[in-house]
Write a structure and sequence with these properties.
The chain folds into two domains: 221 residues, no CATH class; 91 residues, no CATH class. Helices cover 42% and strands 11% of the residues. The strands form three sheets. It has a four-stranded antiparallel sheet, sandwiched between helices. Strands 1-4-5 form a three-stranded antiparallel sheet, covered by helices on one side. Strand 8 and strand 9 form a beta hairpin. The radius of gyration is 31 Å and the shape is elongated.
Length: 390
């Protein structure tokens, strides 16, 4: 007996939590009859399926981490990163095959809509070809050859273009919704070159509209990255970014741009935000370099300890250092493998936060000889003293 693929999901009506939205949309469509035809009894089956997909998709934390990595990479390449906000709905990959008639493009791991680097490159090229009116024809061909590798996109490239166009992704969750178009004269649009004049295929107002649902992204923002290739003069980078800005504003990206989808405008605040992020990143990098230099001659165990201390800010955060079990865990490790650099740092921090503990852990006060330190503190102090004398 052959077991149906994805049998365990056949009875699940909605996308499971944390499932990849794109995988679910593309592979788990369940509005079929037994003969694999679309369910005819339910005329709204496509809408129902899209409504199961709509809502927020992607993980904002993962997207932020991905974006920060991209920004760091592009900065190292002396490139440019910019954010553009969509003026209205956006759709990408509409021509992809799908049972609801209109597909969608999903990032393979982050489960959000995106524009591939090739699409971004094509968009910039389209703007140069159509709208760089201040250039002579010869200068335009030179620019196309330089930026994209060929004067005509149909040519076989004998060189790479001077610039790298990265995938454009949102840096936070995207919100999906269902939109509907209602072509009134399907036979007229699909007749091709055949000229047959009858009531079916002429454009007229008696044709019944056919609603076609499709998935779209509500107003969102995408981060675009462009960088020069190694050894390439970066003088043209600002021109490339300017061409991208104009293309997004006047041509639009993705599908159905003629209906107002996919137009985007530059987010002027992003450059200021990016400068702040890059400054913070620079500070973090300098701290990491300083820490690496400090730990270079220490054992791997000590390096683990001091990296944990740095992450927990133990020198300034008392609660972080004194959290339950942390000191005891490191003392257990030191009792197996003594490392004086770690022991000295623990002693220093204990003297800083619990003055006098190591000198006299059993100290008492008052007429009732009440212990100054609690049981945990005394146990830690005695274990440290034992390590110091071993």
């Amino acid at each position: 007996m052959i077991t149906p693929l994805y049998k365990e999901y056949q009875t699940i009506p909605n996308k499971p939590n944390n499932a990849h939205t794109g995988l679910w949309f593309d592979r788990f469509f369940n509005q079929y009859e037994e003969n694999w035809g679309l369910i005819k009894a339910n005329k709204d089956g496509k809408v129902i399926w899209i409504n199961k997909i709509k809502g927020h998709t992607g993980n904002t934390k993962q997207l932020e981490i991905f974006t920060e990595r991209q920004i760091a990479l592009v900065a190292q390449l002396k490139g440019s990163s910019q954010r553009y906000k969509s003026d209205w709905h956006f759709i990408t990959g509409m021509g992809n095959s799908h049972p609801v008639e209109n597909g969608f493009s999903w990032h393979q791991t982050l489960a959000v809509p995106y524009l591939s680097g090739a699409s971004v490159k094509g968009l910039v090229r389209a703007w140069v070809e159509l709208n760089d009116e201040e250039l002579s024809e010869e200068d335009k061909k030179s620019r196309l050859k330089s930026w994209f590798g060929t004067e005509d996109k149909k040519d076989i490239a004998d060189q790479t273009g001077d610039f790298i166009f990265f995938d454009a992704l949102p840096n936070k969750q995207s919100e999906l919704t269902c939109d509907i178009m209602t072509p009134h004269m399907g036979d007229w649009y699909s007749k091709g070159d055949e000229v047959v004049h009858n009531a079916k295929n002429i454009p007229a107002d008696w044709h019944e509209p056919v609603p076609v649902p499709f998935l779209v992204v509500k107003e969102t923002a995408f981060i675009f990255h462009i960088a020069p290739r190694s050894g390439v003069n970066t003088d043209d980078l600002d021109l490339v970014v300017s061409a991208l800005t104009c293309a997004l504003e006047w041509l639009g990206a993705g599908a159905k741009t003629s209906a107002g989808y996919g137009y985007m405008t530059e987010d002027s605040r992003y450059k200021l935000d990016l400068k702040d992020k890059q400054a913070k990143l620079q500070i973090e990098q300098e701290k990491e370099q300083a820490l690496n230099a400090k730990l270079a001659n220490l054992s791997s165990l000590a390096q683990d300890y001091f990296r944990q201390a740095e992450a927990g800010q133990w020198t300034t955060n008392k609660n972080s250092f004194l959290q339950a079990g942390l000191i005891e865990g490191w003392l257990t490790t030191l009792e197996e493998t003594v490392d004086t650099s770690i022991l000295e740092d623990i002693v220093s921090l204990l003297d800083q936060y619990i003055a006098g503990l190591l000198n006299d852990p059993d100290k008492v006060k008052g007429k009732k000889s009440k212990p100054v330190y609690n049981d945990r503190q005394r146990n830690i102090a005695k274990r440290v003293q034992a390590l110091q004398t071993s």
